[in-house]
Design a protein that fits this description.
The protein is mainly alpha-helical and about 180 residues long. The protein has 9 helices and 2 strands. A two-stranded antiparallel ribbon has the order 1-2. The protein is flat and about 65 Å long.
């Protein structure tokens, strides 16, 4: 006789008494929604210095791997690590970090329904009107308190690539999954 999986649902009282499930359920209830940053740095010198410092560190680390007993290379790696720390601090001081958090699913779905595509957009294959959705989504997802008017201003006045990055930061955090189905 072939083996069958037990698909019966255990009694609720048994589940409630199961300390493992109770702890797991509590952890699931206390999960925070995903938050993602968008870093803006207009200081080209700070950006360039950070990338150069990172590149120099990677190069020296590769050299240290090839010459593990070379004390001069080890010292150069330590100096390069400090250079990266200094360059990162300068970059961080010049940068603006905007943070976006995933909305509750039903809130996100309602927001999308409130911004259907226009006839012209629908003919082009779009389901949503990103022109009207964008400022609303950005403001709703902003952890920093960005208003709809702020978002609309930035979307209208920033370059196309920067406006797209702003919208995508608010959109992509909605679609980020922190789950792994694993190997069944």
């Amino acid at each position: 006789m072939p083996a069958t999986k037990n698909t019966a649902t255990p009694p609720a009282a048994a589940v409630t008494k199961d300390a493992h499930w109770a702890a797991t359920r509590e952890r699931l209830r206390n999960r925070t929604r995903h938050t993602a940053p968008l870093t803006i740095c207009d200081d080209l010198d700070a950006k360039t210095a950070l990338e150069a410092a990172r590149y120099a560190l990677r190069r020296l680390q590769a050299e240290a791997t090839d010459r593990p007993d070379d004390q001069a290379v080890k010292a150069a790696v330590a100096t390069a690590e400090q250079d990266v720390t200094t360059a990162q601090a300068a970059f961080d001081a010049a940068a603006i970090v905007l943070r976006f958090q995933a909305l509750p699913r039903l809130e996100f779905e309602a927001l999308k329904k409130d911004h259907p595509a226009t006839e012209e957009q629908a003919e082009d294959g779009h389901d949503l009107n990103v022109e009207t959705l964008g400022p609303e989504l950005i403001a709703a997802a902003s952890v920093d308190g960005m208003t709809v008017d702020d978002a609309r201003e930035y979307l209208d006045t920033w370059s196309e690539a920067e406006a797209a990055a702003l919208f995508n930061a608010a959109w992509n955090v909605q679609e980020t999954s922190r789950m792994d189905l694993g190997k069944g």
